[in-house]
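Protocol step 4 of 6: structure prediction from sequence.
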Amino acid sequence: MRVTHRSEERGVALVTALLVVVLVGALILGVFATSLSDYRIGRNMLFQERALAAAEYGQNDVVRNWNTAWVTGMQPGDDTILTPTVPGGGTATVRLTRLNASTFWMVSTGAVGSGVQTQGRRRTGVIVRRNSATLNVLGAVTQRLTTTLTQSGSAYVSGVDSNPPWAGCSPAGPAVAGLALPDTNSSDFVHSSSGVNQGNPPILESPIADDTATYSQFGGITYTQLTSMANIVYAANSNASNVQPAILVDGTCDTSKKGTSAPNWGEPERSPPWTGNPAVLPPCYNYFPVIWAKGKFQFSGGRGQGIILVDGDFIASGGTEFRGLIIVRGSFTTSGGGIKLMGAMFVKDSSTTKDVMSGSTVVQYSSCALQTVMQNVGLGGFAQPVTRRAWADMF
């Protein structure tokens, strides 16, 4: 008789299959969860980086396009909100708080995205300081004296502060030196003029006059930045003659005259004398161009105002009249009627051409002329981060 044994292991394959399915599902779920988590982390990091880029773009845009109208009338502690446009999406909100007369604390908030889980926000802070519209003037003429300077005829310089007949001038300030040189006893300085230099002192010896930075940094603005602001540009070896204001038929100032013959460099005179009534002001009284000559340059006759930048040697004759700032990278030569300058001049000197200040040349220091010119050309409208520890990531 055969005996049949019944198995007690029925369904083991099914249980095993179910366990495998569960384990594989759990593994797939884990991989999916990990991938989703990595995706969200990456996405969030991307949104955060884009938000940081928007915040930095906002603060840099405000610094780059600094406008004095933003801060006019602001007292320390006051703030203003700016919203520069961010290319490529995102927004930037910049809160500008005034700390003192020239320093500001800027907090820029960058934001991207709009959903609950698809957005990012970052904040950055930076301390910026507005560049001063004033110059550290040693003398009416500051000269590096790399070659011989001859002062002859009746030419003289005066560091006694004098005001042009312009509106808004404060009382004249303290005198500066007439002529500032690295070495007053140098054989390279020859004085045979009947004109008497004036100032405090008339001739100053200072190592600052020998520093090349003196001729490349002006009130926080570099020479290169000044040339980038030029609205009248001359090629090397140009001669601007018969410089005079130009007026359109409707009585307004014609600023299109920029050639070498009868260019318009503004109106330094106020005739009839300014009495407070705008009607008596000449049309080009508030036109202060920045004139850049890319090499040797001659100014022979006429009048103007603003800033003259000369990459090479500068020659003035014919009793030319100019009010403002002149910066010469080469030598300075006058003859005959010379030049009548009210403001200040910096002469870096060339290595070969000698400097000659002759004829009836007069260089008269004027803090008002310098201040007015620099404000009108926008030199007080620049801002830049302070040198150290200016920036902070505020998350």
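Step 5 (inspection) to follow. Helices lie at 12-64, 68-71, 223-228, 367-376.
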